[in-house]
Each structure stands twice: as C-alpha cells, then as structure tokens.
Amino acid sequence: MTFSATDAAFEGFRVVRRKPLVLLWWAAFYLVSFALIFLVAAGPIAGLMAAASDLENMGPGATPEDFEPIMMAYASILPLVVPLGILIGAVLSAAVARSVLEPGKSAFGYLRIGMDEVRVAVVSLVLSIVIGLAAMVSFGIAGFVAGFLTAADVPGAPLIMVLVFLAAAAFMIWLSVRLSLAIPITVAEKKFAFFDSFKVTGGRIWSLIGMAVIAFVMTMVVGILTSIVFFPITMGLGATIDWQSLEGMGAMGIIQAVGPMIFVAIVLQAIASSLSAAVMYAPFAAAYRDLKGTGTPELA
Q1: Residue 169 domain-assigned?
Q2: pTM
C-alpha cells in the first residue's frame, strides 16, 4: 500500500461518510465530557468567577496582592481539569485512530475506555513534555544567540537572528512531524509507542508536512462552514428571548430564560468539534496505515 499525502489528508471525510453516526457518538461524548468537567470543577469555577468579578470591581487600583485569590482559584481548577482533559483527549484520539485502523469495530462510535486509552494518555502526556522541553531549549538557545549578537554588535545581526529563530522553528516542525504518528502506532500495536514514530516517518517529512497542512486548512474550512450553518440557528433562538426582561432577574431566572439557546449552541458546537476532530486527526492514522501497509483503507 503506497502513501499519498493528499489521500491521507482527506481520511476524516471518508470516516464520516463511511460511518455518519460516529459524529453523533463523538458529539455525545463531548457533551458528557463538558458536563463531567462542570460537575467536578463547578465549585472552583464559581470561585474563579467571583474572584474575577471582585478584581474587576477594584479597577486600575488593584495591587499584586489582589490577584492572589484569582491565582489560587486557577490553581484549584487545574488539578481537576487537566487530568480529565488528558483522559478525554485520549479517548477521542484513540476513537479517531480506531475508526481508520480498525473500521469494522464501530460499536459505540469507536469509543472505548481501556488500555488503549490509558496508553494514548500516557504517550500524549510524555510527548507533550518532550516537545515542550525541546521548544524551551531550542528557542532558549536562539534567544541566547540573539542576545549575544546584539551585545557584540555583530554586523548583519538582525538577519542572523531571524535565521536562528527560523532554524529553531524548523527544528520544532521536524520533531513534531517525526513524532506525529505516535498515537496511531500506540492504538494499532497496543504498546507505549513513545518514539516508534521515528522509524515510520523517516524519509517522509515533506509528505507528512503537506498532509498536515491540507488537514489543517480543511479543519479551518469545516469550522467556518459549520459556523455559517449553525450561527443562524443560534441567533434565531436568541431572537425569541426578551433580553430586556432579564435585567434585575436572578441567576436561576436567567438560566431558565437562556438555557435552551445555550444548550442548542453547545450541542451544535459539539457536532462541529467532532467533525473537526475527524478531519484533523484521522489523516495521521491513515498515514501510519499506508506507510506500514496494514489495515483496510476503506470499507463499503
């Protein structure tokens, strides 16, 4: 099986065409995830909103000490939200990869909670740390070189600095591409594939970059088109609300008045996010499948 960057870039659309119901499953998963995050972090989020409101009321005279409550509120939210976010991302990423690599296992929209998802979560976390550290080092070196050139008043320093930062950016793009197939490999080979992607992506850098660019552009197009389609629906619901009557109304009254509009907007956003996830992530699973020559590219 040969690898075509263009064909792989459109794999997300093929997934949705093959199994349209996956969008509903993934949208439902998004909704459940939002609800779970809200239930777990409702108290800290309320504290954050209160701290933000208090800070706003202080105006420009706020002191550094006045920012402490809002920082503490953020600190109380992160330990709750970050692990959930990693788990939610792992479940969806594994589902998208499974839809490409194991298209016959479509029960529950390819969504599972098992060792695949645990491995994906761990691999995602480790590689995020690796990429973050690599970015700190590469751009830190670039900044050091820029500072040295400026202090030494080297002729042509601005051009050299631009080239150094471009080199750092190029290195990060190279590293990201070399690691880009880690999740599909983890799902397909049932192991912690931290750096196995290096073996598969060798000699395919430019093809994979082209695929990623096309997928990103398609994701932007999907986002714009879904906004165009869904925006009138949300605005139509908003037009039925007497906004002036909300003045002086309590929080529960406001929620009851605008709740249906917010719910519909969240559902529509969940559907749009599901389609975007398919369009953005499925190409990498297709690239692994085609480069390794395994799996089935499409089922009738």
Answers
A1: yes
A2: 0.82
